[in-house]
């Protein structure tokens, strides 16, 4: 059965518009993925997962110690503008109580940067295949980050936390401390990873459902040239 010229032109126009839309959404998805990968580096290295709260500093007595704590480093406020920090990422040794959390965040970071590097596969594989690979990597990153955020409060009953937050600290009880922006950013990263993975699956499925096989390579080339 032959296809009318008008229908063929309409189909070709639809495919062209689809390729343009997919390219725009794909570029936005790739930029967001790169930003999230950079944010994960900040989450890993910053000693701002938890710290002394404002309530402690406004109490009747002077605080014994004031500072912040991360996975690799404990920073205590001093008379100098720069806090006195112990530990650091340069030693590649996280604080003993947060080793498992640091490993999970590291695996999540590896998965996200691997998905960023997988963008190079657009030149060699179909766009749908690359989207699916990146989606699974992003799901892995979000899952590991979620486990890290769950295990972190369970590890608060540690010598470092007791020295910073007082003897009332315990598992899921920060004592005289409160969570800081790095931990909140990690929680938001879980949602971000889920959104990126969902968008990647949607783009992959639309590539498979709407584009004929002979146009997938063309779409991949357009996405790489954007």
Estimated structural class:
alpha+beta
Order of strands side by side in the largest beta sheet? 4-3-2-1-5
Count of domains: 1
In DSSP terms (H or I, runs of 4 or more residues), the helix count works out at 7
Keywords: Membrane, Transmembrane, Transmembrane helix
Subcellular location: Membrane
Main location: membrane
GO cellular component, one term: plasma membrane
Describe, in plain words, how this protein is organized in 3D.
The chain is of the alpha+beta class and 226 residues long. It has a single domain, classed as Butyryl-CoA Dehydrogenase, subunit A, domain 3. The protein has seven helices and five strands. Strand 3 (73-76) and strand 4 (84-87) form a beta hairpin. Helix 1 runs antiparallel to helix 6 (181-210), helix 3 (99-117) runs antiparallel to helix 4 (127-154) and helix 4 (127-154) runs antiparallel to helix 6 (181-210). The chain is elongated and about 60 Å long. The relative contact order is 0.17.
Structure at a glance:
With 226 residues, the chain is α+β, with helices and mostly antiparallel strands. 62% of the residues lie in helices and 8% in strands. The longest helix is centred in the N-terminal third of the chain and has 41 residues.
What descriptive keywords fit this protein?
alpha+beta, Butyryl-CoA Dehydrogenase, subunit A, domain 3, 226 residues, 8% strand, 7 helices, 62% helix, 5 strands
């Amino acid at each position: 059965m032959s296809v009318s010229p008008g229908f063929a032109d309409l189909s070709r126009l639809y495919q062209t518009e689809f390729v343009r839309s997919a390219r725009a959404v794909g570029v936005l998805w790739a930029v967001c993925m790169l930003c999230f990968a950079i944010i994960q580096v900040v989450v890993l290295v910053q000693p701002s997962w938890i710290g002394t709260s404002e309530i402690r500093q406004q109490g009747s007595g002077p605080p014994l110690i004031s500072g912040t704590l991360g996975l690799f480093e404990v920073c205590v406020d001093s008379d100098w503008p720069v806090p006195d920090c112990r530990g650091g990422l340069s030693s590649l040794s996280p604080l003993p109580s947060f080793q498992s959390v640091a490993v999970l965040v590291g695996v999540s970071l590896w998965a996200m940067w691997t998905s960023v590097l997988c963008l190079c596969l657009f030149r060699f594989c179909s766009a749908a295949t690359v989207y699916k690979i990146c989606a699974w990597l992003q799901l892995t990153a979000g899952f590991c980050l979620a486990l890290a955020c769950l295990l972190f409060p369970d590890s608060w009953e540690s010598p470092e936390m007791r020295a910073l937050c007082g003897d009332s600290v315990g598992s899921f009880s920060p004592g005289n401390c409160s969570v800081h922006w790095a931990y909140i950013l990690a929680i938001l990263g879980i949602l971000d990873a889920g959104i990126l993975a969902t968008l990647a699956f949607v783009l992959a499925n639309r590539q498979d459902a709407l584009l004929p096989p002979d146009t997938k390579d063309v779409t991949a080339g357009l996405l790489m040239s954007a």
